[in-house]
């Protein structure tokens, strides 16, 4: 018994020693772990798996609260994701949106939740709406989800930059959505309010310098008092603006945009009825204009407006003005060696990138390049997303080369009713080619398959197709400089686009001359009467679009190109019977039909039609006037204030005789050589 009690007492002492030792060890381990917390937190911040108060200041209370749930937060995230998938399958998108909003607050530094939420709004919810206004609202909500929240919380996540650039390019810039035109005009009108009217007919240097005034305007202010502390000389102007209820915000910029549009309209509107007693709104507008047009503020007002634009771009669009200017003035893909070569060949401004910030492609270019810039070399880079972000840079530049010149007549009351027209901008072709070479080497320079001077194995197919199309685009545009640039691309392809045989021999299509290469490509559009008719009609339509945009020189070039290809196709067919299916109508008749279609198409604005009507030859106007007048009159009535159809389409002289002798007008068109009178360049504004 005594031995048992002694053994039991010994066991108890051993147990106490073990417990005491364990406690001491646990305390030591906890203390050691506590010493590692700062290091671990630093790693978590750099890996973007926790909120960094230094990066995201003044978090909203709901986000801050959600991030303090500890272990329960991970469980809530799992449950939320499961529920979101169920709601998605059931097409309950509004509940899904609310749940995704909570999920974003639970995991604000988890990029996938922001991507999911933005995609849900821009794609799933938007297509369930029935009006273009409602659809745009949700597309814009998706953009704001990433731009205003997701990216500020995750500034080094290449995934979010890629997703935002994709929404701009695909949802707005592409044509797959039925309401893509509404999205384009909504975005363009909103951006025109913020950035102001783009310089019309300006050189790339003038375009960059106009934007520089915004970049160099005072930035370090949030409220007007801070701005006035920086610029005390603006006190009087600010007081006068306040007296007519104009504040330093986007509403002020909108008023300026509306008045600028009114001032630039040609005198082809229906004259407004003069009221004996002005309405309160008219009185306020007159008072505001009196302040805006006050001569004593002629120097101060543009500077103040530039400061307001800078403020809105920084605080509402969350865009980096310095990076925007760099894209226009010193694009990343234009190296010093390339710049020197371009200056020598194309002039001192060839390296400038005159971006029109109103377009979806400009926004794609910004977020793609900026995302690539700020995430380069970061810990959490997703290789596929990084490569696809660069692809979006290519997509943006290609879209700008194909349709980067935007003519828009904004409707500020109903932006999706605005007229717009997009034309190719050959200035971006050389930028696109250089971007392929720059980013290709950056991404694949260490790949064993990489060939110096190319864009690398993953990008070369797209580069080749772009250059082939660009050669034809530059050739049709005409002009010595365009032809020289097109020849450069031909010889580049001849050198690098080789057969995949042991000797990498030159492909057969490059063995002939440059002219042979261009001809072979275009002859595919002339192999049948139907395709030849479409090809020539498209050139004639382009000629009319140029005339409608006030560029008479380009209009003449495209008409002459159409005439040239008409003669080529008809070189061995002129003696055929006039009813032969292989024979084209006379080019004057084709142009008449193209002009008719241009005039009745509602997406061409009355102002463009007014300019085209002045450029058309008399027989063409006489032959289509009666057929298009009613349609144009109906379209003019849709605008507010409406256009006057008799000013847009004044009746051509000699119409009574023309109506009585239709056959004579038709015969004149068959033999008449209709060309656009070049004269002085028309200013569409």
Report on the structure:
The protein has 685 residues and is mainly α. The chain has 4 domains: 61-168, Serine Threonine Protein Phosphatase 5, Tetratricopeptide repeat (Alpha Horseshoe); 199-355, no CATH class; 426-525, no CATH class; 527-671, no CATH class. The chain has 30 helices and 2 strands. The protein has helices spanning 2-46, 61-66, 71-89, 93-106, 111-125, 132-153, 158-173, 180-195, 204-215, 224-230, 235-243, 250-264, 280-292, 300-315, 321-329, 336-346, 360-375, 383-403, 427-444, 460-477, 480-496, 514-523, 529-548, 552-569, 587-600, 606-615, 618-636, 645-648, 655-660, 662-671, and strands at residues 405-409, 419-423. A two-stranded antiparallel sheet has the order 1-2. Helix 6 (132-153) runs antiparallel to helix 7 and helix 23 (529-548) packs antiparallel against helix 24. The N and C termini lie far apart (114 Å). Residues 54-59 and 675-685 have low confidence and may be disordered.
